[in-house]
């Protein structure tokens, strides 16, 4: 059960030859990808998880929203590791990294 404490707040950052695992215990959100769009949903309020009904409503709103073409950034993760890590580094240094999705 000890592995569960890092289940949330963790992510992998692409690097060649291996990803780097980053853990941020202060994270309070999840990321939902729908129709090539990335949505950040805050799921912790005052230290407690939001109610399931609220989360469900947030996801329903994403699904029901009119389609808005987005840059399909998630598709980049399907590239070969060396290509994806190189692209990530370019994005990290540029304007795309500082955008709010």
Automatic annotation (TrEMBL):
It holds the Pfam family Carn_acyltransf. It comes from the Eukaryota. GO terms for molecular function: acyltransferase activity. The keyword Acyltransferase applies. InterPro entries: Carn_acyl_trans, Cho/carn_acyl_trans, Cho/carn_acyl_trans_2. Keywords: Acyltransferase, Transferase. Residues 1-91 form the Choline/carnitine acyltransferase domain. This is Choline/carnitine acyltransferase domain-containing protein.
